[in-house]
Amino acid sequence: MPRGRYSLHDPHDHTPVGEEHFQCAPGPSGWRYVSQITAPSGDHAGSVDLTLDELGRPIRLELHAASWQVRGAALEGVTWVRTDPTGTHATEGNVRAHAFTGTSPAFLVATARLLRLTPGSPATRVRLVAFTDPVLAPRTVDQSWALVKSEAHATDNGLLTVDEYQVSALDTGEQHIVHIAGDVVLAAPGIELEDLETPPSVFP
């Protein structure tokens, strides 16, 4: 069960925005990721709880940030309920999308798991619902993912396969590179892996 810590920063000006302490593991249903997010001050800033089925679809999502809450799942596309800090107003949403995304590294692993790309295959288009900080506002985004290459690197625990993805935002044309090993993001815009206690899990 990998557990560790990501540092999060603004991908444009590199201002620190917090840390995400996580643990994740494959399980009978697919894969689960849980984390606690802290602000640069050290104060608690939110949490992520994401469970995927064996095909990579989100069967349960729970996000907390700034007292806002989102619960969601893959249902007729993706469906979610967003609750305000007072708990008196809840709004439901549904979009014909494939999955969810957001600032947590969990969503990069989840999208890669959903798409199951192979090196050299054509870029694949995916529609996602992004929950943007700090109030978890939903926004539908279209991305293109391509697996550029997979390379095996020798480590103290044996070979570690690192996948390099090129992710393109289809509305702006902006492109960036994401490096993933198993169920851990090694590097991505705004994300750095600072500490990892156990090796990444290998998906079957």
UniProtKB/TrEMBL annotation:
Name used for this protein in its record: Glycolipid-binding domain-containing protein
Organism: Streptomyces maoxianensis
